[in-house]
Design brief:
This protein is of the alpha/beta class. The chain is 36% helix and 23% strand. Bound molecules: adenosine-5'-diphosphate and magnesium ion. Magnesium ion binds next to helix 1. The site of adenosine-5'-diphosphate has 11 residues, from strand 2 and helix 1.
């Protein structure tokens, strides 16, 4: 059985059918890219899987259990995590404290703000920081990190919740090309090691082709192609959307 099974997902905003009958499966440890032009419906799909938006119709099953329409907290509790921008609120906390906070929340404990030298899960936090290459930065205030390091911290925080599926909507936005490759290769390695499935979107097609097991292509809310990098590269419908040159040979 697949880890995640999405069937007939639909969402309209006013007259716009943002997501139009989308179905796909995702296996444990699999790295699945959801790509498509701006406005294709990618974020709307992420938001329906993550619980930020209720679907108009369709089913989202995690290991057979229906989660469509549940709130984000309940969906997170079922094992679906998201990477979000680390907010300025926690900028004065150290890098280690940010990860400890995620670990504490995951274990159902309460973060004690009045105990600044919190020792809970410090070793686990350091292990995660080492995995994302931030061991040296553990004592620094989050607010002074370079942007690329902040993104790696975001990944460590997400993994602190021990998700089985990680949703990453444009995780490398604003990063330099070399950093994009590095962050997604790191994600790829950690996903494999931990058996975590990843659903992500990324504008840089080289990065997508490099790290994905499989790629879904969305256009105007509907899936138009699905396959590995070679299949997607060669797909006439995908070439039409991205390059304006389809199988009919019509350049326009
Ligand atoms: N909250 C919203 N209210 C109205 N329209 C929305 C909303 N969110 C997305 N849309 C519209 O739905 C379509 C898909 O958007 P989105 O899922 O953000 O696409 P993508 O992430 O692929 O760029 C677009 O036409 C967008 O304008
Ligand atoms: Mg988007």
């Amino acid at each position: 059985m697949s880890l995640l099974a999405v069937r007939g997902l639909r969402k309209a905003f006013g007259g716009v059918q943002a997501v139009d009958d989308v179905s796909f499966d995702l296996a444990a440890g699999e790295m699945l890219a959801l790509i498509g032009p701006n406005g294709a419906g990618k974020s709307t799909c992420f938001n329906m899987v993550g619980g930020q938006l209720p679907p108009d119709a369709g089913s989202v099953r995690l290991e057979g259990r229906e989660i469509a329409g549940l709130n984000p907290r309940a969906i997170a509790a079922h094992g679906i995590g998201r990477t979000f921008q680390i907010t300025a609120t926690f900028g004065s906390m150290t890098v280690r404290e940010n990860v400890q906070m995620a670990l504490i929340a995951h274990h159902g404990e309460v973060w004690r703000f009045w105990r600044p030298a919190a020792v809970r899960f410090a070793a686990e936090a350091d292990a995660l920081l080492a995995q994302v290459g931030l061991a040296e930065q553990a004592e620094r205030a989050t607010g002074v990190l370079a942007y690329g390091d902040l993104k790696r911290l975001e990944l460590a925080v997400a993994l602190g919740n021990a998700p089985r599926l990680l949703l990453m909507d444009e995780p490398t936005a604003g990063m330099a090309p070399a950093e994009r490759v590095a962050l997604m290769q790191l994600t790829r390695r950690l996903a494999t090691e931990r058996g975590v499935a990843v659903l992500f979107t990324e504008h840089d097609m080289d990065v997508v082709f490099d790290v994905s097991d499989r790629i879904l292509v969305l256009n105007r809310g509907a899936l138009i192609a699905e396959g590995d990098a070679a299949a997607i590269r060669a797909d006439p419908a995908v070439r039409e959307v991205y390059l304006g040159t389809g199988a009919a040979g019509g350049g326009h």
